[in-house]
Amino acid sequence: MAEHTLTALALTCSLKPSPAPSSTDKMARQVLDELAGHGVRGDLVRVVDHDVRPGVEKDMGGGDEWPAIRDRVLAADILLLATPTWVGHPSSVAQRVMERLDAELSETDDEGRLLTWGKVAVVAVVGNEDGAHKIIADCFQALNDVGFTIPANGGTYWNNEAMNPKDYLDLEQTPDAVASTNRKLAANAAHLARLLKQDQYPPAG
């Protein structure tokens, strides 16, 4: 058993509200299952089920449900941002999550560190069109900008062949390359999160 118990939160950014089946949820749950093998307890939030208001503040008021989600993000050691591909870009829900995380740039601990320092972020993308590499790159940059640390092989994805409407949910089995990438992502994310939990970044200068 791992010396330190770790936790992970998957924010899935499907445009489909629950209980509709979601390829993004499927991929995210597969990654959480892999993380569980490394002593990481995981949970999932489908963001579209919540009233997350537009803006870049911690709390946009008027019934904004982001503050409760934010509390769960900050309580987790690993954040998984999972998004479908829409016209070559992350979903609008994923974009809103990244916009709301911008508020973390103004939040620090007593030693000047962002509250996200020492936390790991990984990204999962599914889509029946191209664009996953660009989406992962954009999400990595946004997550790193607001303080998260990205592990080696911290992105996983599935793209169907061009002009083919099949979804990830429709696959009878997970392709070997995707399953292998999920395993590497989980192993590296858990390893990095455990190291950071034992030895936090130094105080900000």
Automatic annotation (TrEMBL):
Domain NADPH-dependent FMN reductase-like: residue ranges: 9-153
InterPro entries, A to Z: Flavoprotein-like_sf (IPR029039), FMN_Rdtase-like_dom (IPR005025)
Pfam families with a match to the protein in the record: FMN_red
Family matches, as SUPFAM superfamilies: Flavoproteins
Gene3D superfamilies for this protein: 3.40.50.360
Name this protein carries in UniProt: Flavodoxin family protein
UniProt source species: Saccharothrix lopnurensis
